[in-house]
Amino acid sequence: MPQLNPNPWFFIMLTSWLTFTLIIQPKLLSFITMNPPHSKTPETPKTTPWTWPWT
């Protein structure tokens, strides 16, 4: 069965992953996000307990 021969496919996979990690990924990570996350702490809303009329 030729599809079980890893000889050509392993090289293609290795080449594609190296291309992605060494060339494409640094270019993608160099972009500045337009909406950066804030360091502001979220405010928790003040809630009051509900009084049930049948208890």
TrEMBL record:
Q: What is its main location?
A: mitochondrion
Name any one GO molecular function. proton transmembrane transporter activity
| Membrane-crossing residue ranges in chain numbering | 6-24
Annotated membrane topology is:
Single-pass membrane protein
Heme: is it a keyword of this entry?
A: no
Task: Could you list this entry's UniProt keywords, alphabetically sorted.
Answer: ATP synthesis, CF(0), Hydrogen ion transport, Ion transport, Membrane, Mitochondrion, Transmembrane, Transmembrane helix, Transport
Q: Name one GO biological process term.
A: proton motive force-driven ATP synthesis
Q: Which residues form the signal peptide?
A: none
Locations listed in the record: Mitochondrion membrane
Q: Which GO terms describe its cellular component?
A: mitochondrial membrane; proton-transporting ATP synthase complex
The family line of this record is: Belongs to the ATPase protein 8 family.
This chain's protein is named: ATP synthase complex subunit 8
